[in-house]
Amino acid sequence: MIGVINLLDVRLITFITLANTKSFTKSAGVLNITQPAVSQHIKFLEEKYEVHLILKQGKGFDLTQEGLILLKYAEEIDALYRALEMNLKNKSVMARTYRIGASMTIGGYVLPHLLGKHKKLHENIDILLQVNNTEEILEKLVSGKIDFALIEGLFDKNIFKFKKFKDDELVLAVSKDHAFAKVKQVDIEDVINGNLILREKGSGTRDIFKNSLIELGYDLNDLKGYMEIGSISAIKSLVELNLGYSIISRETIMKELKIGTIKEVAIAGLRINREFNFVYLYQEDFIEEFMDFCFNC
User: Fold this and answer.
1) pLDDT tens per residue, range 249-296
2) Do residues 158 and 237 lie in contact, with contact meaning Cβ atoms separated by under 8 Å?
3) Which structural domain, as residue segments, surrounds residue 68?
4) Is residue 4 part of a domain?
């Protein structure tokens, strides 16, 4: 949902929505108004500021330079009103506590900064984070030990409600001193038969990697691994010391890639993409609010 309608000019809301959807029809649906009303709102803004905001390109359109300027300021105004609304509401409600479960990659490398930002805006909301592998987090969700979860692994989409948060990619991470680091790509057979460090059983990363091998026709008995370790930090340390290499989320090695202690190497004919998903059993206001917050960060 965009903005606070009684505070932010409804025509600016229409313009922000149109810029995001790139469609007059979709904008009308999102805002629950007619398509002519969308056109009228844009026309009003153009006449008010005496500029053209959109430039038609075939069946679609692009924002003009003036349109991009208006969008920048409209989004800043919208963000200020949302912050105002959140802070006023937080001052008037009692403290609340929620329990979020996260799988290892997300809990260690994605959620912490989001929780920090959330706390600054919602002083009366405490979020207790529990980090385990995907299998354990789903067990806690079913047993009621957590309110909802954010996971990177596979789950039964017939049992759980879910919403995709973002895409992720698993990559081959090797030491800068490893032989793999000196080539553009390696064969999957060389990866399997070498010093491959695997995540522990129950890990979403491990399950996704195993499924990728199955799709390529490999027997999972070939996937023995050099070591099995549950700690991502420990895996990264071993890789940096050139004591093995691993298939791991790019999110977890951004710092090491930047300073050059770990290198990412392509695997011939294989890219391992996956999703980070919010997973829950029941629809609750806070879950929707927190998901919207994460999407807008």
Assistant:
1) 999 999 999 999 999 999 999 999 999 999 998 888 889 999 999 999
2) no
3) 10-92
4) no
Average pLDDT over residues 123-145: 90
Q: Which helix (H) or strand (E) holds 234?
A: helix 232-240
Considering the domain architecture, whether residues 28 and 160 belong to the same structural domain is answered as no
Question: CB of 123 within 8 A of CB of 90?
Answer: yes
Which residue shows structure tokens 């208006």? 70
Residues 83 and 101 in one domain: no
In angstroms, the Cα distances linking 224 to 194, 208, 214, 258, 277 are 10, 15, 14, 31, 28
Residues 157 and 283 grouped into a single domain: yes
166, 150 in Cβ contact below 8 A? no
Contact in structure between 118 and 289 (CB atoms under 8 Å): no
Domain with residue 126: its CATH number is: 3.40.190.10
Q: What are the residues whose beta carbons fall under 8 Å from the beta carbon of 217, sequence distance 6 or more? A: none
Query: Quick one: 210 and 252 in the same domain?
Result: yes
What percentage of the chain reaches a pLDDT higher than 90?
53
- Give this prediction's pTM: 0.61
Q: Which of 109, 235, 105, 232 is nearest to 175 (CA)?
A: 235
Alpha-carbon span 207 to 211, nearest angstrom: 6
How many separate domains does the chain show?
3
Residue (of 153, 93, 127, 159) closest to 287 by Cα position: 127
Domain for residue 1, yes or no? no
The verdict on 200 and 291 lying in the same domain is: no
Pair (223, 132) in one structural domain: no
